[in-house]
Amino acid sequence: xxxIVKDSMGDVAKxxxxxxxxxxxxxxxxxxFDTIKVKLQSQPTPLPGELPKYSGAIDAVKKTVAAExxxxxxxxxxxxxxxxxxxxALLFSVRGQMETLLRSSPGAxxxxxQQFVAGAGAGFxxxxxxxxxxxxxCRLQAQGASATAGVTTAAVTEAGAATTAAGAATAKxxxxxxxxxxxKQVLRSEGGVRGLYKGLFPTFAREVPGNATMFGVYExxxxxxxxxxxxxxxxxxxxxxxxxxxxxxxxxxxxxxxxIKSVIQIDDYKNPKYSGSIDAFKKILKxxxxxxxxxxxxxxxxxxxxxxAACFLAYEITRSSLG
Length: 323
Prior knowledge:
By secondary structure, the chain is mostly helical. It has helices at residues 2-42, 57-68, 78-102, 112-155, 159-173, 179-189, 193-196, 200-226, 236-265, 277-288, 297-321. It holds the Pfam family Mito_carr.
């Protein structure tokens, strides 16, 4: 029993370390794509006869770089960077412990269905960390879009009024000075800790089925390419391919729930547009059709494939090097 406990603790430590390295790789590669995704999701619905602020992902990149410089693509990275170690360490370590519970005997390979279950359990656990982190990130990413939208609206008014309105829009746009400032303001004026967990249920709806799909697809692809359950001989290219496609499967399975989560988390606390997730779903569908539930889908997929390829490769290499 002592040896089993020690071995289990050793596996947890390895998963924590490997998950941390994988998470950093994922963040560095994927954050600019995530910024564009959130900007597209959070842009206001144009009035009849008006054009949307961003015509698409490429347009959003161009306008973001023009207005904020290349650093604008990494806005909001402080929050996930500060927690990426904990998030991915938790994700991979819970998944590892779920694998231990699901194995028929020590060291036995898991089936694809068992990996789905392990991924679902890991997704449930990380939702509690993901919700406040995502709320902070989304608000920082969205406020840049709000700034330009405010200035654009002001520009069509009389010159004097336009200047005043633009200044007000800019002041409103810099409501948050950084990740810690978002946390402080939410804790102070939006119901304390509960305010940081705004969007918890749509986060569950994203993370549980999303991670179940991702880890299940990852294992399926590895076994398919290896020709069996022993995947230890796969090369780096195969691991990157499996990881990238698994990440794409994550978003393909749950993307509308991410849109709902984002609009809920950036919604005004005092004058909310949405009363909850179901209300957000209905209003988006009514105003924008099914396409409204897939705003930013291109950047999300563009981010997910290379970011998860980097994440899984870094995880596997680190895990293997630790023995």
